[in-house]
Amino acid sequence: QFELVESGGGLVQPGGSLRLSCAASGFSLDDYAIGWFRQAPGKEREGISCISSADTTYHADSVKGRFTISRDNAKNTAWLQMNSLKPEDTAVYYCAVDSRAPVCHVDAYAYDLWGQGTQVTVSS
Hints:
The chain is built from no helices and eleven strands. Strands 2, 4, 5, 6, 9, 10 and 11 form a seven-stranded mixed sheet that branches. Strands 1-3-8-7 form a four-stranded antiparallel sheet, with no helix packed on it. β7 and β8 (77-82) form a beta hairpin. It is mainly β.
């Protein structure tokens, strides 16, 4: 069974940091692009970061300079390091894999395997 499991979410004060993990099981992440998305209540799902199989990365303007995506194929895991968190970063965060393309992109409709999501709340 192919599965992605996110962890690392929680409640953090503005200006704080969190590190989200995305662990894959049942398959190898080596050949696939990995994306991080988030969805706040009442808003559309937003693609915020991605990393290609060749480690090319992209970060949306809303998180650029604060969030960093990385991967370790040996651990079959990807991470999203989130620094300088703001209340507007509050959302459910999802990782996803596009099994049909190794390139980095944030077209949510093209990603065909999703994790269950992890809640991130930024509040004082």
